[in-house]
Write a structure and sequence with these properties.
- The protein is mainly alpha-helical and 120 residues long.
- Helix content is 53%, strand content 10%.
- It is built from six helices and three strands.
- A three-stranded antiparallel β-sheet has the order 1-3-2.
- The protein starts with 14 loop residues before the first helix and ends in a 7-residue tail after the last helix.
Length: 120
């Protein structure tokens, strides 16, 4: 991991790093991830607890319907999985998948391999 994200869990990247990598990382372009979808993945894979649509909407300053449309694509691509809460079936939790973890780990590894730029 980069110096700014060395203490984070494997497979996660910092906000600064994901903004940069959105532009240059071919894996993100190949997976057709836009900024919102990548932001969703950063939150889902960067938090210990499963997130909800409401959690994501609040954290990413986007409406729940916009989150849901992006989740449709991420789920279709097997990057996340939706699961109904057992106690409250209105709540949908977002779970990690092997494919999503692999993608986030690859992106993180690419960031680690990139030459560090010194601050001026």
């Amino acid at each position: 991991m980069s110096a700014s994200s060395a203490s984070e869990t494997p497979g996660t990247i910092s906000k600064k790093d994901w903004r940069l990598t959105m532009i240059v990382n071919p894996k993100i372009r190949a997976a057709r991830l836009n900024t919102l979808k990548m932001g969703i993945l950063v939150v889902v894979y960067g938090e210990d607890e499963p997130q909800t649509v409401k959690d994501l909407a609040t954290r990413l300053f986007v409406s729940p319907p916009a989150i849901s449309r992006s989740l449709d694509v991420l789920e279709r691509n097997k990057l996340i999985k939706r699961s109904r809460d057992k106690k409250d079936h209105r709540v949908v939790r977002l779970l990690r998948t092997r494919q999503g973890l692999d993608l986030m780990s690859e992106i993180s590894a690419d960031l680690d391999a990139a030459p560090a730029k010194e601050a001026a």
